[in-house]
């Protein structure tokens, strides 16, 4: 597949800048792969597609307050820190910017009272290694009191409540971006699914910044996929395998869940527990092993996310759906509307 196959023109005004309330009143586009039909619903109507014994798999990773603002301790110049991955108690991989003005050995002042600063230990091309000096505060306290939830750059304003960028079931801190397909679920909808006999299971994949990275190569097969940590417990794997063996249909909520499940499933569709990393790039031609239906948002052009959706549904159906979504004024990206593909 070539890069231009993943391209489309999106009116800027369709990029959602704020969430819908209630969450499950967002639009839901339904794609039927067998009939090639496209229909329009509200997200809360997703309930009608599930039957007793089906499985809904969600990603319970929680977004950390990964963005810090500060200043160079000597010059006073403004600096920004975007945390990527914790290496040790106070040591992180991160982006420090402006890139050309950040140097090894720099101290970046985050707070004067209490004194919190960051030392740039190692400067590299795509990431930096830094150490927090926290004045006896725990890293958790520093994140909570001085960090900010890192909204995507295409969301220009600020959110009223940081919980708006968290799923209602987020519980395991580690992501630097929200697994946004899950933002549409409410406690009421989850309860209704459970009452219907739907089995709800959780996996954990910590979303990294590479999730939104556009593909640069003309041939997408040459794209180097980012690596992300994920965890599937023995109990979760057992429950999913049992439900599938009894005829349950597996609905994967979001590309993070899809990649987690497909990474550790056998060719026979048996899910294995795993605590590890995935670099799985799902693109057209991929044979899905365990996922039967997917819930996803509307994605950027030229991304691995869109390639994954096309691999599940077919290029023509997805492009037709996106054209339809633009015509019907669907809202795109993180705070946007949803798609169910069955």
What does the model show?
The protein is an alpha/beta fold and 342 residues long. It folds into two domains: 3-63 and 161-341, QueA-like, CATH 3.40.1780.10; 67-146, Thrombin, subunit H. Helix content is 18%, strand content 27%. The chain contains six helices and 17 strands. The protein has helices at residues 139-146, 187-195, 234-245, 255-264, 304-313, 315-327; strands at residues 27-31, 38-42, 55-59, 61-63, 67-72, 78-86, 91-97, 107-111, 116-123, 128-133, 172-175, 199-205, 228-232, 250-253, 274-278, 293-297, 338-341. It has a nine-stranded mixed β-sheet with strand order 2-1-17-16-14-3-12-13-15. Helix 5 crosses helix 6. The longest helix has 13 residues, at 315-327. The radius of gyration is 21 Å and the shape is globular. The two termini are 23 Å apart. The mean pLDDT is 95.
Biggest sheet features: 9 strands, mixed
**What percent of the residues sit in helical stretches (DSSP H or I)?**
10-25%
Share in β-strands = 25-35%
Which consecutive residue ranges, at least 5 long each, have pLDDT under 50? none
The largest beta-sheet arranges its strands as 2-1-17-16-14-3-12-13-15
What is the quaternary state of this protein? single chain
Q: State the secondary-structure class.
A: alpha/beta
CATH class of the largest domain: Alpha Beta
Q: Outline, from the CA principal axes? A: globular
CATH topology of the largest domain: QueA-like
Distance between the termini: 23 Å
